[in-house]
UniProtKB/TrEMBL annotation:
One of the GO BP terms on file: double-strand break repair
Highest taxon in the source lineage: Bacteria
GO MF annotation list: 5'-tyrosyl-DNA phosphodiesterase activity; metal ion binding; nuclease activity; single-stranded DNA binding
Names of required cofactors: Mn(2+); Mg(2+)
PANTHER family, A to Z: TRAF AND TNF RECEPTOR-ASSOCIATED PROTEIN, TYROSYL-DNA PHOSPHODIESTERASE 2
Coiled coil (residue ranges): none
UniProt keywords, alphabetically: DNA damage, DNA repair, Hydrolase, Magnesium, Metal-binding, Nuclease
InterPro entries (UniProt xref): Endo/exonu/phosph_ase_sf, Endo/exonuclease/phosphatase, TDP2-like
Domain Endonuclease/exonuclease/phosphatase: 11-252
A UniProt-annotated Pfam family: Exo_endo_phos
Any one cellular-component term (Gene Ontology): cytoplasm
Protein name as annotated: Endonuclease/exonuclease/phosphatase domain-containing protein
Amino acid sequence: MTGAPTPLRLLTFNTLFKGDVRARLRVLGAILERERYDLVCLQEVMYRRNARLLRRVAGAAYPYRAFTGAVALRGGLMLLSRWPIRRCVFTRFAMTGPARPELLMRKGAQVAVVALPGADCAVVNTHLSANRDGDWSPANRYTRVQRGELDRLGALLSAIDPRLPLIVMGDFNLPRSSRVLAEFAAAQSLADTMNGSREPTYRPTPQFPSPPAFDHVLLRSAPAGDLKPRARLVFQDAVTLPDGRSAYLSDHYGIETELLR
């Protein structure tokens, strides 16, 4: 008896660390519990108490979780999984100038191996430094910071078993058109699951009416076979908070990706 293959469902989402954080996380947790993604990479969860909140609300759907930190989460990163996480290591990016409050977030990358049905998979959750100048040209001071972080990330990816499929998700704070991002992806043989899309992943505002796509899902198939991605933006509409108010889940949209063999 045969049937259609079941897709692997992924989500990456920057949850926004300020504002009505816990109210929004309660709503997000309920959505995650209902959707039951296979893997969820979250950024800006920030505090262990927020990770505990997500675990209470969505924990039944994601029995396996990875985050580190006694009070503040390292990098603000949290990985949720329906499948066993064999190992997960957080690596912090180097702290380099310009000086900025963002350095308190201790940004970096989680590198995990997850035991998916049928095969292991390497999963990387990351959040790079923001470009405060809004200038992503190679010579910009923040672009140089981001290049250094991508170099460190590339070194981490190079140490992953090449026989494993690799998924790299997160808020790169670099536009899809960025030369620095393109060079990184090419060097690591990573394909953008939303390649060609002109949709922003940051919510437009009057001050920033035409933002680019900062969030990305990058994929490297294992030698044994190709993975065919289908990706779309989610969490674009307002939600109802527990007290009845209407709000957006974040200043970012999420990227939902389905992978088929």
